[in-house]
Amino acid sequence: MSYYVNLQKAIDYIEDNLKSKMSLGQISKVAGYSIPHFYRVFLAIVGCPVKEYVRKRKLSNAMFDVVTSKRCIIDIAFENGFESHEVFTRSFKLAYGMPPSRFRKFQVEPILYEKVNLLSINSGGETILNPEIICKEEKLLLGIARKINQRDNIKFGLLLKVRNEFMEMVRTNENKANADLSYAVYDYNAEDIGKEDDEINYTYFYGIEALESGNVPTGMVKKVLPQGKYAVFSYDTINNTLNGERLSQGVYDYIDGIWLPNSCFELAETPDYEIFHKNENRIDFYISIK
């Protein structure tokens, strides 16, 4: 375990100094190894050379700023530790296939390269998944919202009834962008947070992407999912696997109880949501993180 602990010290040091110049000697000294020794074990355990890891982390942070802000590209380059606009643009284009200005224009939803956590080993022997971390663009949804009590949901299957209700309504609705994907969003009451699970009340929204200019049919509402950073888990409803691994508990029990405490992330204030794929036995869980 000592290798993992010492390498994590170096990774933490890199993270704290991403906007500054770092030498391989400085980083290896934090880990307590000679440069050749450090280079060898870092490559073997992390999966890429130290310089490449630093470059990927800087580029990922810069890419997130490019996508989620309107700040000047050159300011983003300098703030993320790049020596010049030219160096940043060249590195960005090499990594992502286009310069940052074009990347921003096309509103790409990039997969982010996040900090490695070598100490994410659960004491109970559970597998710690590595979900994709993605910067998701804002989505405008059209659907229905219903107040749900968790006890009643368990007893009567209310969420399925809401989904079926919506699918009946949407058959005659032309205001939709992609009917192959359905979105489910949970909005919780703050005062219910301390209650037992079966006493919790929340609003359950179920719908599809909406056309910006479309009218809102009677009985439906529009909902905006804000742009944000998400960890993405894919659940196979037939085989009961999450990102290919078989589950011994519920999806959210695993994500909140095992993955989150062993990750480098915290939950963000933006809502989590689920995407149901039509004609597929698959649900994608988007967990809002920071």
UniProtKB/TrEMBL annotation:
Gene3D superfamilies: Homeodomain-like, Regulatory factor, effector binding domain. Residues 8-106 form the HTH araC/xylS-type domain. Keywords: DNA-binding, Transcription, Transcription regulation. This is AraC family transcriptional regulator. The keyword Endoplasmic reticulum does not apply. Signal peptide: none annotated. It comes from Anaerobacillus isosaccharinicus. Transmembrane segments: none annotated. One of its GO terms (molecular function) is sequence-specific DNA binding. Coiled coil: none annotated.
